[in-house]
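Local shape tokens

___
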Amino acid sequence: MIPRGVEPLTPGAAQTKSEPASSDIHSIVNDVAGQHGVDPLLVHAIIRQESAYNPYALSPKGAQGLMQLIPATARQYGVSNAFDKRQNVEGGVKYLKHLMGTFDDMRLVLAAYNAGEGAVFQYRGIPPYEETQEYVYRVGRNYGQLRRASKSATTVRAQAAVPPPEPEHRPLETYVDEEGKVHLRTR
């Protein structure tokens, strides 16, 4: 499953430095999230927290890949190789979409993604686990940062697309002199 010569990285170690998304991961996230009607920025926020974009991340609890799918969840959503970037994101986004249909509050969706649906139902809210509470906070913060950055970039692109205003031109005045020559001058 893990390519030969690649050491899996536990999420704790991965989270100490967040790697930027490679262009292929960015494309996969945009494609898969778009297909399932999930905000790609939310998926990026989860991946950043779960694996810091390490497709070979492996947690002590056995969660695997970019979106840290546990084997049972991976199987449930048709993932045969959790270390395959596309399969992992596909399974994680399908699971996320399911949770979004189950819970109305994004904080509960994130808590369920981290601790499981059963824990959220049992506690009728975010479970009192320090790890889950910290997870909900960090993913929410990541998501907010990504949304603000995206909004700023969109504003800059929109401003760049607007042509500058036409310079103000003074009106021309035309007249014909005694010899029949046409003259132009500005006022």
Summary: The chain has one domain: 11-186. Strands lie at 172-176, 182-186. Confidence is low (pLDDT under 50) at residues 1-18.
